[in-house]
Amino acid sequence: MEWITYGLKHEYYKINIEALNCCFSLIKIIRLLDTSEHTKYSGILFLSIVDKFKLNDIDQELKLTIISTVGNLIYYLGQAIDTGYLETLLNIYLEKYFILII
Amino acid sequence: MNNDNLRPIVFSWLIKILNFNKSLKNIDKTITKYIPIILDYITKNNLHLQYQSLELLLSISCSYSNALKGYEDSVVKALLSIANDQNNQLLLFIYENLVNLFDNITINTGLIEKSIEETVKILNSSKLFGNSLNPILNYIEKCSKILDSKKITSYLDNLINLPFYNLNQAKAIAILAFSGGVDVQILNTMTEKVIAL
What we know:
The complex is a heterodimer.
Chain A: H1 2-9, H2 13-32, H3 35-54, H4 60-77, H5 83-101
Helix pairs in contact in A: 1-2, 1-3, 2-3, 2-4, 3-4
Chain B: H1 3-18, H2 28-42, H3 47-63, H4 72-83, H5 91-104, H6 109-125, H7 134-146, H8 149-160, H9 167-180, H10 184-195
Helix pairs in contact in B: 2-3, 3-5, 4-5, 4-6, 5-7, 6-7, 6-9, 7-9, 8-9, 8-10, 9-10
């Protein structure tokens, strides 16, 4: 987890993308763990990703990877994510969609 | 990758979250903010945007109907305005939306009466047939149950004097008559006309 957080905060966007790809795969593995672990890890992943997810002025490849990773996080661990976190993510998705539409 | 390619991806995840089986109580206000934009895009002449806006509206009316408070009339008016477009490929989807709205929000009775009249006109000119008409007929059935039977009777009185019916229109009239509880005499006249088709 520490390495993922480090990768996500790195200045070089390619490293961010690799860290996100790692998250993408990790989410499926976390899903296999005991249910009690889901909330803990989904919280950590949310907090690591959310800052980058809020940004609009980033590389398109990074944007696409982060959208899919967050989607994957919700799809696999949505039931375990804190409601407040899920609301934040939905807010960002709505904002992004309407920015893209306009 | 440009924004046009990114939009469907964001859209598909957005729909998944909106349909997510988890109640997000504080999200209604945020969604309300975007309703005017959704309504604007429903009426735009772009099939993809119209489809996405309708899908969004369907998810919102199912899971977050409180977000539509204050916009009930505008939503129905926007949907009816595009339903009137004869080349509309999304006609059935529009009526699925209307049925859903009917179940989840309170619609003005005057607007329902107007929508029934327009729906019968749409059916008259539509080339759709058979089961594909179900969303439209469902809408008529739901509406007719809450309308005043006198109003339905006077409306049907005008309709049965028309020189010609097509099958779609006859189905709509039959649903209106049976669900709306109209006069037996009108029912008899109607039955004769339908048999004569």
